[in-house]
Amino acid sequence: MDALTIHRLHFAFTVTFHYIFPQLTMGLALLLVVLKTMALRTGKEHYNRAARFWARIFGINFAMGVVTGIPMEFQFGTNWSHFSRAAGGVIGQTLAMEGVFSFFMESSFLGLFLFGEKKLGPKAHWFAGFLVFLGSWLSGFFIVATDAWMQHPVGFQFGPNGEIMLSSFWGLLLNPWLFWQYLHTMTGAVVTASFAMTAVGAFYLLVKREQDYGQTFVRVGVTAGIIATCLMLFPTGDQQGKNIAFMQPPTLAGMEGLFATQAGAPLALIGQPDTDNRRLDNPLVIPRALSFLTYRRWKAEVKGLDAFPGDRWPDNIPLLYFSYHIMVGLGTIFIALMALAAIQLWRGKLFGQRKLLWLLMLAAPFPYIANTAGWITAEVGRQPWIVYGIMRTADGVSRHVAAGNALFTLIGFMGMYAVLAMLFLLLIYREIDRGPEVA
Amino acid sequence: MMETLWFMLVAVMIAIYVVLDGFDVGAGIVHLMAARKDSERQHVLASVGPVWDGNEVWLLAGGGTLYFAFPALYASSFSGFYLPLMMVLWLLILRGIAIEFRNHIDSLVWKPFWDVTFGCASALLAIFFGAALGNVVRGVPLDNANEFFLPMWTNFGVGGNVGILDWYTVLVALAAFDTLLVHGALWVTLKTAGDLHARARRLAQVGWWALLPLVVLLTWASFEIQPRLSESFGARPWGYIFPVLALAGLIGMRVLHRGEIAAFLCSALFIIGMLTSAAFGLYPYVLPSSLDPHAGLTVYNAAAAPYGLKIGLVWFIPGMLLTSGYFIYTYRNFAGKVNLERSGH
Fold it and tell me: Minimal CA–CA distance to A106: which of A190, A14, A32?
């Protein structure tokens, strides 16, 4: 393996593992505010206990998110020094703002939220929870703003030595790419959290313990879940797709496995991209649907990969294609499952339907897969650029950090994260086993 | 002008980081030495539990600020110190996990395991941070593109081949270890009572005596190895205020050792004085070259473009005001001796 590949795997591995945790905490922060609000409005201790249970789960996830998050900021400098030297003046802004505006808020008020309930009283405790939510969603904003700039660089100009200089701060924060990507990302986090809450509730109902909490978790989880899964598709997913279609057309072609430019382009449901022969093998398609989804006209022309020179093609089209299709496929299944659950909930029959509860319980891991697949789509889709259209990934790497050094630390991270994953699962299992009635 | 301002802001953020995370790293160093019973160890952990994460954010925020204000410095130093920084990351991970997970399972193998992890990771972190500071003061072999890649070890000769760990940087590492040991011991003294309090106090005193020869040796070696230090202090004598602050802190720790808060604040003053002395002495260099005394990264050739630096102030100032508010509020909420009943950690 060459050094570039190892450095790419290094970032990909550490960021993928890291994002397991924030996607839950960002979504859960919202659901915690919902539970705390219900506690305030009804005055029932039940909802406070439910919130405390999820706060414990939140705490474990948050700790994992913090310790796996620090390496992300460091790696911009350690593994991607040429990118950092060129673009640090721009993306350093949003990364520093994340620290200053969100991490300080999050860490300060999480301490109070977890340890200060008695001292603060109900309203102040609600407010501490709200600030944890605000902090975590701001953090998401600054990170997505950073990524959005790499996807669609705006508000900059080139300096005399080719360095990229910020020229419009508001351009950076109001990047047209950012708005929908941010909403899509955050809604995805709510999907993960709502599926997790539903799954734990379904588990309690299935094993017939903590049943009143089980019902609360399923009710809150399914309600949030049906809203979030629908928002994933429309408008956030739809608009994000349009961003890609207009701002990164080769990426759209790669995602859809569309090799040839055509009017009335079909939407591939299943198929395997064959880049050597430039075709999609074993395709199952909806005729003209891609043209309609992109341009709202059945006969519109959609540019295929053949419209672009090979050095602008995403460098791993099969991975891009599959990650995108996994994301969309799972997202569709999520809507169906949550719609079914919501109807049964509305009819008052969900809690007795064991088969559906089984499905809801087993569905919990899949939003993690869908969120991860979505990020792979975004990041592999941006290739071969580290900053779209202006800096190639190969030019951004730390050239003087040899492949062996990078492989050494990649292996180190793999070992350490394997242990962390086991610890994490153990502790989460224990919290679920202890249940909400404890303390 | 802007470059110098951001240099000062980043230096202050790093100093705040070392003072704040320094006491919880220090608490980790004294954890195994001062706290023997499980309840004592719980007290040490509870004294840092609600604040360590917020303290560590100063590293992230300071790093982020360094990144956008001096991107070339961030790029050169982080990639050049590749291996030790990765080890710092692993140590930060282990330490954070140890603090957060230790009290989750009440078992005679689980808790001691995390206690030892917490102690060792904290001790090694202090050593690595010290060595990093030593490397920055001594300078690194920057090439024409202002890049370098340092090996971890040297043959430990004096001068010539430098590595990340050589005699000088090991000396700085030892001084940093001892400084944070004292700082952490004073924090634990401040936050606890009883036997634990007494042992922490004794550790702080022993550590203080060990600090004296280290500081003398360190000062001599630094001026010997980095001639720019004496040039800076010679050219701008007002800068002696920084070493004087450090000295005042050092003496204050001893003189005021009965006042728990006063001694801790003196230790903080000592740390700030030492770090600002180093920053003042190196300025305008931020990463000197060990090959050529007149080469290296300076605040000017490492800084981002003027517009970014100017606009940065617009959000940085209100951001820091908000942050100070959170910290004052949080520390007041967790003020006083640790009370396990109340803290719930």
Answer: A32
- Alpha carbons B145 and B76: distance in angstroms, whole number: 9
Are the Cβ atoms of A420 and B92 closer than 8 angstroms? no
Does residue B273 contact residue B248 with C-beta atoms inside 8 Å? yes
Residue A378 has pLDDT above 60, yes or no: yes
- Whether B328 and chain A come into contact, CB under 8 Å, resolves to no
Q: Which residues are CB-neighbours of B344 under 8 A, at least 6 positions away?
A: A114, A115
Residue numbers of B between 85 and 114 with CB closer than 8 Å to A: 85-86, 89-90, 92-94, 96-97, 100-101, 104-105
Q: Label residue A439 by pLDDT band (50, 70, 90).
A: low
Please determine, for residue B157, whether its predicted confidence score (pLDDT) is greater than 70: no
- Measured in angstroms, the CA of B227 and the nearest CA of chain A are apart by 28
- Please give the pLDDT value at position B341: 63
Strands A301-302 and A279-286, by their bridges, are: unpaired
* Shortest CA gap B214–chain A (Å): 31
Do the chains contact at A78 and B85, CB–CB below 8 Å?
yes
Q: Do residues A136 and A31 touch, judged by C-beta distance below 8 A?
A: no
Give burial (CB, 10 Å; 0-12/13-18/19+) of A4: middle
Q: What per-residue confidence (pLDDT) applies to B159?
A: 60
Of B93, B305, B323, the CB nearest to A89: B305
Q: What's the token pair of residue B295?
A: 């080469």
Cβ atoms of A179 and A210 closer than 8 Å: no
For an interface test with A, which of B56, B86, B118 has the most A Cβ atoms less than 10 Å from its Cβ? B86
Q: Does B330 touch chain A (CB under 8 A)?
A: yes
Q: Is the pLDDT of residue A8 over 60?
A: yes
CA dist., res. B189 & res. B169, Å (int): 30
Domains and CATH numbers, chain B: 2-343 (1.20.1630.10)
Q: How far is A110 from chain B (nearest CA, A)?
A: 9
CA–CA gap between residue A182 and residue A193 (Å, rounded):
17
User: Does residue A388 carry a pLDDT above 60?
Assistant: yes
Residues of B in contact with A60 (CB under 8 A): 100-101, 104
Report residue B163's pLDDT band, with 50, 70 and 90 as the boundaries. confident
pTM for the whole thing? 0.95
A240-272 pLDDT per residue, tens: 999 999 999 999 999 999 999 999 999 999 999
**ipTM entry:** 0.93
Interface contact B304-A108, CB threshold 8 A: no
pLDDT interval class at B237 (50, 70, 90): very high
Report the amino acid identity of residue A115.
F
Q: pLDDT value at position B180?
A: 97
Distance between B83 CA and the closest CA of chain A, angstroms:
7
B65 contacts in A (CB within 8 Å)? 92, 96, 99-100
Of the listed ranges A29-33, A304-308, B158-162, the least confidently predicted one is B158-162
- Average pLDDT score, chain A: 95
Tokens of B19: 């003072």
Instruction: Determine, for residues B63 and A409 on separate chains, whether the beta-carbon distance falls below 8 Å.
Output: no
The Cα A403–Cα A359 span in angstroms is 44
